[in-house]
């Protein structure tokens, strides 16, 4: 045997040089991916909690107080609807779109373009935007909770039962009758 037979080729040397960092990089990459996913999920969970919403709204408007006075806030027996239950879509892609658009709200608060002093004058346009979205998606967030045992037609008064049965025929959605249920009715409509 000559010494050249045991000498690694250029490609073998390159692979030997690459495989150590590559093999180390795989677990590091997995750890970073898991940490990134966990951080992302943590931000999603935190930003869907009432405390996150209240952190701005308590300082600048009456929306929190209106919500707390509504049937959606809960009475200790019924399960309350959170801000996110009504304002953040449940399907992932739609949720991400809303979260991205909502960063503008944070910007406007930090920039001072929406303040305690001007909020009520801006509120009708913001409410109209929410109502249009609810109409466009056929009140998907309302229907997410109000189904099955939470939407027992037989338990409703006759007028409500008939109206709910005829909603689709009339091209109506929840917001057409229940606007102002959780937040004060705005005079924009």
TrEMBL record:
Record has Manganese as a keyword: no
* Cofactor info, note text: Binds 4 heme groups per subunit.
State where a menaquinol binds.
105
| Cofactors demanded by this protein | heme
Q: What subcellular compartments does it reside in?
A: Cell membrane
Q: Which PANTHER family match?
A: CYTOCHROME C-TYPE PROTEIN (PTHR30333), CYTOCHROME C-TYPE PROTEIN TORY (PTHR30333:SF3)
Source organism of the structure: Aestuariirhabdus litorea
Specify which residues bind heme 3 according to the UniProt entry for this protein: 142, 145-146
Q: From the Swiss-Prot or TrEMBL record, give the protein name.
A: Cytochrome c-type protein
């Amino acid at each position: 045997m000559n010494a050249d037979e045991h000498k690694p080729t250029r490609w073998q040397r390159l692979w030997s040089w690459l495989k150590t960092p590559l093999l180390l990089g795989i677990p590091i990459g997995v750890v970073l991916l898991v940490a990134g996913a966990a951080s992302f999920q943590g931000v999603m969970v935190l930003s869907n909690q009432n405390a996150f919403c209240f952190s701005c709204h308590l300082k600048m408007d009456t929306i929190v107080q209106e919500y707390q006075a509504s049937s959606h806030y809960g009475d200790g027996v019924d399960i309350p609807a959170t801000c996110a239950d009504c304002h953040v879509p449940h399907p992932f892609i739609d949720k991400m779109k809303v979260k991205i658009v909502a960063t503008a709200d944070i910007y406007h608060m930090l920039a001072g373009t929406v303040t305690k002093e001007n909020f009520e004058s801006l509120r009708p346009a913001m409410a109209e935007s929410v109502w249009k979205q609810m109409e466009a998606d056929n009140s998907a967030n309302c229907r997410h909770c109000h189904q099955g045992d939470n939407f027992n037609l037989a338990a409703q008064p006759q007028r409500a039962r008939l109206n709910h049965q005829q909603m689709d025929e009339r091209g109506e959605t929840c917001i057409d009758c229940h606007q102002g249920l959780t937040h004060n009715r705005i005079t924009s409509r």
